[in-house]
Amino acid sequence: MKEILQNIKEKAITSINETTNLNDLNDIRVAYLGKKGELTAILKGMKDLSQEERPVVGQIVNEVREIIEEALESKKVKLSKELRESQLQNETIDVTLPAKKVEIGHRHPMNIVLEDIKRIFIGMGYEIVEGPEVEKDYYNFEALNIPANHPAKDEQDTFYINGEYLLRTQTSPVQIREMEKKTPPIRVLAPGRVFRSDEVDATHSPVFHQIEGLVIDKNITMADLKGALAVFAKELYGEKTRVKFRPHHFPFTEPSAEVDVSCVMCEGKGCRMCKGTGWIEILGCGMVHPKVLEMCGIDPNEYSGFAFGMGLERITLLRYEIEDMRLLFENDVRFLKQF
């Protein structure tokens, strides 16, 4: 047994001295001192020895273990030092090189404008609401007083999924859903993505964003609508901003109007931005049609209301003097980092 232990010690020391890397050194540790190592096997076999031999052999095993462990630790320190010296020589750092610049992201210009618009209307008591982008034909058209033969339902203008469902062409369906499930007074703002079958150019896209507002209460008049939009325009474009209402037609409002604001660049004097008119169109609006109120279960004899809708892209283009809407979607960092 003593000879076996002596051979194990000599083999282990020789292997340790000959190894040149830390991985092989760890393999040697496992081979001799691991759970299935040679020295561990000797300890397991001590049950077959006589009572007189066990203490003697046990002492020799412990001595051999200590010698092997010391040799392993000494070799580990030596190899680690050599590895570090090699890394210091081969992996030197040139401190004169410029550091990597950390690019910090920021909000998209449309998100900046959207948050400002939300803040303005929340300050006037509006609630932000959302609805499905895949919408029923009923909510997108019929409930908005747009019958089956209306030009707005032309398949050339609308992405139909089937006869009942389509990709919404406006966020107005959200207003209908809110009127169906809530009892007046109602004050909501509905921003969201909408879809129309348009060719992509500087002012059109098949995917864009709308923001629509709705107020339903007793004794709501056109004066309330004009007052709300005047406050909105001044908050968004500045205190000197003026608003102008022009008669228009929308199936779901009566009377209806388009709203212009005085040009923020020339203050109404006329410039390239406003094409010399001094005014820029920003949204459409009107008093909610009595038929729409009836279809939503609201008595038009007791309640009235107004609605308005604007394109987020258009508002953003005007605010930052951007001439091509495609720039908002191309993800060009050189463009986006200006805002």
TrEMBL record:
It is found in: Cytoplasm. The keyword Protein biosynthesis applies. One of its GO terms (cellular component) is cytoplasm. GO terms for molecular function: ATP binding; catalytic activity, acting on a protein; magnesium ion binding; phenylalanine-tRNA ligase activity; transferase activity; tRNA binding. It is an enzyme of class 6 (ligase). Its cofactor is Mg(2+). The keyword Transport does not apply. Mg(2+) binds at E254. Keywords: Aminoacyl-tRNA synthetase, ATP-binding, Cytoplasm, Ligase, Magnesium, Metal-binding, Nucleotide-binding, Protein biosynthesis. SUPFAM superfamilies: Class II aaRS and biotin synthetases (SSF55681), tRNA-binding arm (SSF46589). Residues 113-330 form the Aminoacyl-transfer RNA synthetases class-II family profile domain. GO terms for biological process: phenylalanyl-tRNA aminoacylation. It catalyses: tRNA(Phe) + L-phenylalanine + ATP = L-phenylalanyl-tRNA(Phe) + AMP + diphosphate + H(+). Its EC number is 6.1.1.20. Binds 2 magnesium ions per tetramer. InterPro entries: aa-tRNA-synth_II (IPR006195), aa-tRNA-synth_II/BPL/LPL (IPR045864), Phe-tRNA-synth_IIc_asu (IPR004529), Phe-tRNA_ligase_II_N (IPR004188), Phe_tRNA_ligase_alpha1_bac (IPR022911), Phenylalanyl-tRNA_Synthase (IPR002319), tRNA-bd_arm (IPR010978). Tetramer of two alpha and two beta subunits. Belongs to the class-II aminoacyl-tRNA synthetase family. Phe-tRNA synthetase alpha subunit type 1 subfamily. This is Phenylalanine--tRNA ligase alpha subunit. It comes from Natranaerovirga pectinivora.
